[in-house]
């Protein structure tokens, strides 16, 4: 009797043990499924948040900036087009968006484009204005747009000549004295819908859209620099710079302060002032430790693998190019310089770049996942 009870007791314990083991397995499976589901939900949330970061800011920027933003963007694109057209012409060096110190106003004045040839230094102001342009009695330029709205601008030629004087003073302080007439201001009115009055067109420093198209169609497409002086020069310069002086001038203009330049993944170019990164400290620590004065460029490489996008945190690899003061052209070092003076780091795609766009009052935030490269001025 006792043996039978003992067997029944052992059977009961074995059965209870199996039940407890099964319950443990079931719980473990449920926990595992719940964890997997949670991970999947989190991954989808990260993906959704990344999409919001990538697309919403651009949409919001369009709403916030409005017409002024469109005008500024059109003007910047016009400057880029003109600069690109002059690039590669033998004997012509092109410099963009120079920011020249203005001691009288304790700030800087921007020069759109500078062209250096053997006998001239052309300082270009590029405008993409549309509508009719008239001279006011006080010298201001009045723009009447197609919608009837009126914009009063300061005297464009006087402003440009003031910046030319600042540039000449800046070059003298850095050791280059230019011959009289070597620096020549030019205003390019590129928009075919721009109709300046005769009093403006008659100024020898003003290049209308019709004149510009003639220069481009007849001469510029041939990549011939011989026409440039005949087309633009309004001064007869007897003296020329020596080869050593010209190299020094090229070096000074190459290292003059400019705006920082942001190239986005969709091909847009944004200019302004880079102000830093915002994100998790583990992502920004390395980038924050690099001094701006030591960096010339950052290139972003985006990892596009869908598995990493879905089940991991999207990453962006940043290649930091350190500034090489031995080179004349800092923004485009040779391959050996890239190998010797680069560092890499990887950050989450939600990391944001703080950038003060020219013409705006507040800094904007760009996700690193929408940025292709960042070029920093010296």
Helices and strands, with pairings:
Layout: H1 2-86, E1 93-102, E2 107-116, E3 121-127, E4 131-135, E5 141-144, E6 150-153, H2 156-173, E7 183-189, E8 194-196, H3 198-201, E9 206-207, H4 209-218, H5 226-232, H6 243-254, E10 260-264, E11 269-278, H7 281-289, E12 295-302, H8 306-311, E13 315-322, H9 335-340, E14 342-348, E15 352-357, E16 364-367, E17 371-375
Parallel strand pairs: 3-7, 4-8, 7-9
Antiparallel strand pairs: 1-2, 2-3, 4-5, 5-6, 10-11, 10-17, 11-15, 12-13, 12-17, 13-14, 15-16
Number of DSSP strand runs: 17
What structural category arises from helix and sheet content? alpha+beta
Beta-strand portion reads 25-35%
Question: Major sheet: size, sense and barrel closure?
Answer: 8 strands, antiparallel
Going across the major beta sheet, what is the strand order?
Answer: 14-13-12-17-10-11-15-16
Low-confidence stretches: 48-67, 327-339
Transmembrane segments: 21-45
InterPro entries: NERD
Pfam family, one: NERD
Protein name: NERD domain-containing protein
Write up this protein:
The radius of gyration is 31 Å and the shape is globular. Strand 2 (107-116) and strand 3 form a beta hairpin. The longest helix is centred in the first third of the chain and has 85 residues, at 2-86. It folds into 2 domains: 87-254, 3-Layer(aba) Sandwich (Trna Endonuclease, Chain: A, domain 1), CATH 3.40.1350; 259-375, no CATH class. The strands form 3 sheets. Strands 14-13-12-17-10-11-15-16 form an 8-stranded antiparallel β-sheet. Helix content is 42%, strand content 28%. The chain is α+β, with helices and mostly antiparallel strands.
């Amino acid at each position: 009797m006792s043996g039978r009870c003992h067997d029944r007791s052992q059977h009961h314990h074995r059965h209870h043990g199996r039940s407890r083991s099964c319950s443990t397995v079931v719980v473990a499976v449920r926990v595992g499924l719940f964890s997997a589901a949670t991970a999947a939900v989190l991954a989808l949330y990260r993906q959704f948040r990344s999409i919001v970061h990538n697309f919403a800011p651009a949409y919001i920027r369009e709403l916030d900036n409005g017409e002024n933003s469109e005008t500024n963007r059109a003007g910047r694109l016009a400057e880029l087009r003109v600069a690109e057209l002059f690039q590669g012409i033998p004997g012509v060096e092109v410099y963009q968006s120079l920011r020249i110190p203005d001691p009288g106003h304790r700030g800087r004045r921007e020069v759109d484009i500078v062209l250096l040839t053997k006998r001239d230094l052309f300082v270009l102001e590029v405008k993409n204005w549309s509508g009719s342009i008239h001279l006011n009695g006080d010298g201001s330029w009045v723009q009447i747009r197609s919608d009837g709205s009126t914009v009063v601008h300061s005297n464009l030629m006087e402003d440009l000549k003031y910046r030319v004087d600042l540039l000449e003073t800046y070059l003298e302080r850095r050791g280059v004295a230019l011959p009289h007439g070597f620096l020549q201001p030019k205003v390019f009115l590129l928009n075919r819908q721009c109709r300046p009055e005769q009093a403006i067109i008659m100024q020898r420093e003003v290049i209308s859209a019709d004149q510009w198209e003639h220069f481009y169609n007849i001469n510029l497409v041939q990549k011939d620099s011989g026409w440039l002086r005949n087309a633009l020069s309004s001064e007869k310069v007897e003296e020329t710079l020596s080869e050593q002086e010209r190299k020094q001038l090229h070096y000074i203009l190459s290292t003059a302060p400019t705006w920082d330049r942001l190239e986005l993944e969709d091909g847009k170019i944004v200019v302004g002032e880079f102000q830093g990164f915002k994100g998790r400290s583990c992502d920004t620590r390395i980038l924050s430790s690099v001094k701006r004065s030591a960096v010339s460029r950052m290139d972003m490489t985006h990892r596009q693998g869908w598995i990493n996008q879905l089940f991991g945190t999207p990453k962006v690899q940043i290649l930091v190019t350190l500034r090489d003061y031995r080179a004349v052209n800092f923004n485009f070092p040779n391959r050996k310089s890239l190998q010797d003076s680069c560092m890499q780091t990887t950050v989450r795609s939600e990391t944001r770049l703080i950038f003060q766009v020219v013409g705006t009052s507040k800094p904007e935030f760009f996700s690193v996942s929408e940025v292709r490269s960042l070029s920093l001025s010296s």
